[in-house]
Amino acid sequence: MFNKEIECMPVKKLKELQLERLKWSIRHAFDNVPFYKKKFEAAGFHPDQFKDFDDMQRIPFLTKQDMRDNYPYGLFAVPLNKIVRVHASSGTTGNATVIGHTKNDLNVFSELVARSLSSYGVTGDDIIQVAYGYGLFTGGLGLHYGSERLGALTVPMSGGNTPRQLMFIKDFGVTVFGSTPSYALNIADFIEKNMPDFKMESTKLRIGVFGAEPWTEGMRSEIERRLKIDAYDIYGLSELMGPGVSYECKNKSGLHLGEDNFYAEIINPDTGELLPEGERGEIVYTSLTKEALPVIRYRSRDITRLFRDGCSCGRTLIKMDRVTGRSDDMLIIRGVNVFPSQIESVLMKFEGIEPHYQIIVDRKGPLDDIEVMVEVNERLFSDEIKVMNDLSKNISNHFKSSLGISAKITLVEPQTIPRSEGKSARVIDKRKI
User: Fold this and answer.
1) How many CB atoms lie within 10 A of CB 50?
2) Are residues 335 and 282 located together in one domain of the fold?
3) What pLDDT sits at residue 432?
4) Number of compact structural domains in the chain
5) 191 and 123 within one domain
6) Which of 170, 237, 348, 423 has the most other CB atoms within 10 Å of its CB?
7) Domain range for residue 371?
8) How far is CA 36 from CA 46, 177, 229, in A?
9) Which residue, 327, 357, 372, sits at the end of a domain?
10) For residue 421, what pLDDT band results from cuts at 50, 70 and 90?
11) pLDDT in tens, 355-399
12) Are the beta carbons of 21 and 291 closer than 8 angstroms?
């Protein structure tokens, strides 16, 4: 265990620590971020009024849009000369959400990832290949610095180039591999189609660290069977930190949340009402130690539940279930966040396309597939098949280049997509059926 004192702290003492740190974090935000001061005062709340956990409900929520509206540095609570790194979202639906870190913030980040790795059985003797993307995305650098914090040999491979990934796994004696779960399955597919003589049993790989997208127990079983490894879940969100916010242990029975650094609540996503422990709803986070950008009651939109089950691993930290979905309309397709509005913006760039479309998301085996059915006008529909095929390929290429996803584009005749007098059913997510 990486930090037994914290991870096995008696719950009563842990709650006392959380309360003390909540008071500091709320005051830190109020005193140093004009946005929070204005928002708290508008809600009739002052940090002096915060006495216990029940008072959290008096504090207004922070949303993704709030973070976009304060682009780039509007939520920073320290001067820029105290910021040593920034991460950011892609900004494809508007301004990017920019997250700053002080040296201490990064120390906390790397410790939490090191705790995660340790909980899977990783030690300083391991060799860890990081196949998450590097750059403004938190996954690659997050796992990288956590691996180094643990003292492991770290291979900063980043994503893609599957033949090279496999070459390094074998030649470097890699024992731990980190990526999205869908990329792990892509590797398995690649081996079967292109390298049938490559046997995972002949490598030293034993543990997979997978996150950045929702995945099921069925996908875990598939990964473990095909890659001959133990597959573990790691969870995070860039607005809060990155990977390591919560993590599984050897029992694979829920993810332990880093309660010494984050306070979590579950709310009804429709009403904002606080739900009791054990009930499923939207998880809301408050940072307890973040210096650069304190996050106070951030609505993650992730649907899960929180529970304590006296885990036999000895950790007393509260657990969260795997995230089962989103309370907004964002789709996560093979690790890529996509909104229907982004899809619409791509479609509307093409001449002859009508503003009527339907997005169908399905899971073919363990992987997600997306099909976009879109109406074309009468003139285009009556044109030759080659013109239609070329347009379909053109749109598909734009999806790949601008959104980072592969989609099947089906062009249909006018009046094919169902109409509605109310809100259009733009998305059919068969993964939830």
Assistant:
1) 19
2) no
3) 63
4) 2
5) yes
6) 237
7) 331-429
8) 10, 40, 46
9) 327
10) very low
11) 778 999 988 777 788 999 998 888 888 777 888 889 999 999 998
12) no
Pair (178, 29) in one structural domain: yes
Q: Name the pLDDT band for 425 (thresholds 50, 70, 90).
A: low
Task: Give me the count of residues in the chain.
Answer: 433
Residues 250 and 394 in one domain: no
What CATH number is associated with residue 388? 3.30.300.30
Residue 93 shares a structural domain with residue 3: yes
What CATH number does the domain containing 40 carry? 3.40.50.12780
Question: What is the pLDDT of the chain when averaged over all its residues?
Answer: 91
Nearest Cα residue to 116 out of 21, 211, 182, 228 = 211
